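PROTEIN DESIGN WORKSHEET
SECTION A - STRUCTURE
LENGTH: 153
TOKENS:
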């Protein structure tokens, strides 16, 4: 489906904003399409810093992975055991994105079989108050049944 067409006046009005369309959200009831826009610049509004932060740690698993790494260095399978519902491929993808973002350090030891450990970088450690605030809010406002080995406890 294509993006909504803007009138000439609307196009000129929004021409100054650098944005990237990431996906279309479909409304079944109204048969409408809303485009989700991600800003490339933080000059758009005061809330853009929040949007930028959420983009860095978005994804179903990144926050939970970070939470477990706050407890110390972990090997791939140790992380996987703590997150039994994540696939190996998804865990690999999320760890690579966190590494690319400068939040996680991946250390490979030249052994057979190879030993790979994941730990937080100083930049990753700066997210601890953010992730812990999310956990606290979730503990107070959600009804999840906590299992110590499975959840972020």
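SECTION B - SEQUENCE
RESIDUE ASSIGNMENT:
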């Amino acid at each position: 489906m294509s993006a909504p067409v803007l009138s000439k006046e609307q196009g000129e009005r929004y021409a100054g904003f650098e944005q990237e369309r990431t996906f279309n959200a479909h409304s079944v009831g109204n048969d409408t399409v809303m485009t989700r826009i991600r800003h490339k610049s933080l000059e758009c509004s005061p809330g853009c810093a929040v949007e930028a932060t959420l983009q860095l740690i978005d994804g179903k698993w990144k926050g939970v992975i970070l939470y477990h790494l706050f407890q110390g260095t972990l090997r791939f399978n140790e992380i996987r055991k703590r997150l039994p519902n994540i696939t190996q491929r998804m865990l690999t993808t999320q760890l690579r994105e966190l590494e690319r973002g400068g939040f996680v350090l991946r250390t490979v030891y030249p052994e057979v079989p190879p030993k790979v450990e994941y730990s937080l970088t100083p930049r990753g450690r700066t997210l601890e108050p953010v992730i812990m605030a999310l956990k606290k809010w979730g503990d107070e406002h959600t009804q999840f049944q906590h299992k110590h080995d499975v959840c972020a406890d």
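SECTION C - NOTES
Helices lie at 8-13, 48-56, 62-69, 76-82, 88-100, 122-125, 128-141.
Residues 38 and 51 are 8 Å apart (CA to CA).
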